[in-house]
Amino acid sequence: MPNIQSAFGKPLTVVNTGLQTFAESVRAQGVQVVDVDFRPSPYDAPRVYRTRAGVDIEAANAEAVRRIASGKAVLIGLAIARDVIPGMRDKMILHAGPPISWDRMCGPVRGAVIGACLYEGWAQSPDEAAQLAAGVGARLIAPLTFEPCHHHHAVGPMAGIISPSMPVWIIENAAFGNRAFCTLNEGLGKVLRFGAFAPEVIEKLKWMATTLYPALDRAVRSIDGGIDIKNLIAQALYMGDECHNRNKAGTSLFLRAIAPALARTCDDRETIARVIEFIDRNDHFFLNLSMPAAKALTEPAEGIEGSTIVTTMARNGTDFGIRIAGLPGQWFIAPAGRVQGLYFPGFTEADANPDMGDSTITETAGFGGMAMAGAPAIVKFVGGVPQDALDATLEMYDICAAEHDTFLIPALDFRGAPLGIDVRRVVETGIAPRLNTGIAHKEPGIGQVGAGLLRAPIECFVEAFEEMRKA
After folding, report:
1. How many other β-carbons are positioned within 10 Å of the β-carbon of residue 157?
2. 26 vs 19, higher pLDDT
3. pTM to 2 decimal places
């Protein structure tokens, strides 16, 4: 082995495809080994190059990833949800993931719905809110309507709840003219998005609506051309974020971008101080900007005939759903997976709800789990070792159609992050996308209990592949 190393003039790296005894003997000689959990795909998936209608799938996919990569996600302001989200109306609640009814909602989503009802003033107690959501009760004036955030050009982390009077970010794709929306991030712990609805949760949401939102809106709108969120994502990837579960750099970059405008547009020094402190103490603040940026970047790819590129991955704590460019609006659904990770003191895997949230839009847009190689510190938060982060990204190249030309990974010699999950490649290889995520307690009202890693359920990719073979 030393002779092979010296012949190439640099250290040799061996890729091991599941032969552990081989890997151990190679490591014993001081050679770096990258373990790949390879196994033949169990699915009958011959490579399909054209649809039955004769559409060139490779060309369609090239156009899809071109649109995603060439988009420009810019923060242009904030507004109240009912005023800007298309189709939003009174007594409507948007949620993460594919469509779901109250009777099938998991505990944390139910808890967040209850919290939204209390926040809106539709109910005066959790029990009354639950009755309203279920469509029963003496005070029922009009039933609630539940629809996915994704049906309204929006995204929401974890439970993903958006109610009419909540403030939302407005992200515009300057290259294509479409817009996407997301609420503001509350921080970690006992918060609405993890299903908590205690009085302090509602109090924080009210402060965000009455103080944080107007201050940020004035500041953003005073900045000529807005704030280029795509550029901040690219910078954050250089600084150790992957902009899904690790947003320390992204939050810091955003604070640098917004602070001068805050100082110029807010006359109250205490308000400025509280806004800056709130952002500074919340390392996940940038997540609610990176998510709608990803949504704005992926939407222009929807509707490209023949494309097998995934444009949506989302979970509601019960179901995991995907949508693909060539079949816009059609969901392919499988049960939500179980997260393997680290738990806060006092909690175990028995307390955990299945995977949830719209935040996997980041992987769909070419960062998040796709860029874990550039964020080795993420494994400390979700459980693992730095090599896991590198292996995750290297494996994802096998199921993606391209590499991003803006989202680059320093640890891979500035190679572009994997972009454009292709359902054909997922089924052919048997490799499902890797995800990292937070973990919510399965009961409503408790909140976050940990964070971890998992793979998307491959069944929904198989279903999408089979549907495309019929097209």
Report:
1. 27
2. 26
3. 0.90
